[in-house]
Amino acid sequence: MDGPSAMEKMPVPSSKVGRIIGRKGIKIRELQDQSGAKIDITDEVNGDETMVRISGSEDQVADAQSLISQLLTDREGYGNRERGPPQQRQYGGEPTISFQIPEDKCGMVIGSRGSKIREIQDETGANVDVGRRDTAVNGQITISLSGDKDACMAAENVIKNLIS
Q1: Where are the beta strands (DSSP E) in the chain?
Q2: What is the rounded distance in angstroms from the CA atom of residue 84 to the CA atom of residue 129?
Q3: What span, in angstroms and rounded, lies between the C-alpha atoms of 117 and 155?
Q4: Long-range contacts of 37-42 (CB under 8 A, 24+ apart)
Q5: Which residues lie closer than 8 Å to 163 by C-beta, 6 or more apart?
Q6: What is the rounded CA–CA span in Å between residue 68 and residue 154?
Q7: Which of 42, 49, 52, 142 is the most buried (most CB within 10 A)?
């Protein structure tokens, strides 16, 4: 541990608890891995807020609180990811690149449980959003890249090389 043991309870809007947990619990595990803290969604509900218990060292707890706050504010107003990439605001409205790929190549870009898309995002620094299959037009899916212009261009190159 990085110091004295700490435990904090953080109120989170009940409607946003799913963002912390993520699909099949992937996001909460990711937050725990990044911060080193243990994160539990409690049964305690205060009005429209659910208490999240965070335990670990003081630094780990602070890191986890920061990551959770960032997760909740990054996506504020973006209940549906199609409306706009959350990363765009962080980069002050930097350009977003959109391009089409064949629907049957989506799996190559996403990877097993999203591993490839995370690798591309980590490697390039761009946010990568792969359109859902039910939004395909003429067998083509839209890939949207947002963030720094160089990062977006790098991500586009990685994806195009991957599917070629």
Answers
A1: 5-13, 38-46, 49-57, 97-102, 127-130, 140-146
A2: 10
A3: 10
A4: 37/61, 37/63, 37/64, 39/64, 39/68, 41/17, 42/9
A5: 101, 102, 105, 108, 109
A6: 28
A7: 52
The count of other CB atoms within 10 Å of the CB of residue 16 is 16
pLDDT at residue number 90: 43
Identify any residues that bridge with 144 across adjacent strands, giving them in sequence order: 98, 129
Token reading at 147: 């963030």
Q: For 101-128, what is each residue's pLDDT tens digit? A: 998 888 898 888 888 988 998 888 888 8
Phi, psi of 43 (to 5 degrees): -90, 0
Q: What is the DSSP letter of 138?
A: T
Token pair for 137 = 């037009």
- CA dihedral of residues 52, 58, 62, 64 (deg, nearest 10): -50
Give yes or no for residue 94 having a pLDDT over 60.
no
Calculated CA dihedral for residues 40, 42, 46, 48, nearest 10 degrees: 70
Which tokens go with 30?
């990711």
For residue 158, the SS3 value is helix
Question: Taking residues 13-41, what's their average pLDDT?
Answer: 90
Q: Which one has a higher pLDDT value, 61 or 149? A: 61
